[in-house]
Design a protein that fits this description.
Strand order of the largest sheet: 4-3-2-1-5-6
Distance between the termini: 68 Å
Number of domains: 1
Largest sheet: 6 strands, antiparallel
Number of helices: 3
Helix content: 25-40%
Number of strands: 6
Shape: globular
CATH topology: Mago nashi protein
Length: about 160
């Protein structure tokens, strides 16, 4: 009888440990990073292929004509699981702990929009008019460094 009690207890404790470890991990389905209104990176948690959209929407000195359509180029980028996890943690930190910019630029210089979606919850943070978003903090600089390895992003 004590043998079965010990085996049952071990199985119960192992089962609890596994579910506790899974509960610690934060589930996220996808995240979106938009830089300077013209580059959008969509990263799915379970896929190594991520979508990058480049919007050619003109500029202040060369705006698109009213009848012109915005041209969008799409490409795929491969992020490893470690890179996806690192990007997620950096984006989460920039959303959960927003950085107060030290300078101010015009409305269209230094834009960064971050979004994390998980099941029915979407969290986001938008940085506007910050000149160079990669210089907001060490976290932003590291995020920019990881993204620049694979994507030609503007900042």
């Amino acid at each position: 009888m004590p043998k079965y009690l010990i085996i049952g207890f071990l199985m119960f404790s192992i089962g609890c440990k596994q579910s506790a470890e899974h509960a610690i991990q934060e589930p996220w389905d996808y995240l979106t990073i938009v830089s300077e209104h013209n580059t959008q990176i969509n990263i799915l948690n379970g896929s190594d292929t991520s979508e990058v959209l480049f919007y050619h929407n003109g500029s202040f000195f060369s705006p698109l004509r009213k009848e012109a359509r915005v041209k969008v180029d799409t490409s795929n980028v491969l992020f490893t699981k470690i890179e996806r996890d690192s990007i997620y943690k950096l984006v989460k930190d920039l959303i959960d702990h927003p950085v107060q910019p030290t300078g101010f630029c015009t409305e269209y210089v230094g834009h960064l929009n971050l979004t994390i979606s998980s099941h029915q919850i979407r969290r986001s943070c938008e940085y506007r008019s910050v000149c160079d978003w990669s210089k907001l903090s060490d976290t932003a600089a590291l995020l920019n460094k990881i993204l620049k390895r694979k994507v030609n992003i503007a900042h």
